[in-house]
Amino acid sequence: MEEVFKLALGVVENDRGEISQNIVTVLGNMKLGDKNNNIFLLERQPGNLEEAKEELKKGNLNAILIIPEGFSSDIKESRQGILTLIIDQSNPQISSILTGMMEKIVDELASKVAIEKLVGMMATDLPIDKPAPPGSTIAPSLH
């Protein structure tokens, strides 16, 4: 019988914004390789950090992800958003795996937000509703 790899992650979700929800969804849907098994067993504990810390001490959680209030709006407004990850240090291998996974998720989130902002800026700078003047070209010619 094949062993299923699961990490119990407590999520203290103090933000209800779109970006926060996306992070939780991505975590909940992460798969291990080509297997159909989710990596994380998510335990949502909105706003209750003390309860999550108690579960971590008891060994019921491998880590706690804290998403602070206003996180989504901070990211959307180009301010620094801070996620806190508290990891059970009793297993260095799991600690390393969790840290790597969270860094990857944050990097992907930052890339996605940057692309969305760039596309948004480009769209607002383009005079889409104005026709091109007679005799103009869409792209400059190269000589």
UniProtKB/TrEMBL annotation:
<dbReference type="GO" id="GO:0016020">
    <property type="term" value="C:membrane"/>
</dbReference>
<protein>
    <recommendedName>
        <fullName>ABC-2 type transporter transmembrane domain-containing protein</fullName>
    </recommendedName>
</protein>
<dbReference type="Pfam" id="PF12698">
    <property type="entry name" value="ABC2_membrane_3"/>
</dbReference>
<dbReference type="GO" id="GO:0140359">
    <property type="term" value="F:ABC-type transporter activity"/>
</dbReference>
<feature type="domain" description="ABC-2 type transporter transmembrane">
    <location>
        <begin position="3"/>
        <end position="109"/>
    </location>
</feature>
<dbReference type="InterPro" id="IPR013525">
    <property type="entry name" value="ABC2_TM"/>
</dbReference>
<keyword id="KW-0812">Transmembrane</keyword>
<keyword id="KW-0472">Membrane</keyword>
<keyword id="KW-1133">Transmembrane helix</keyword>
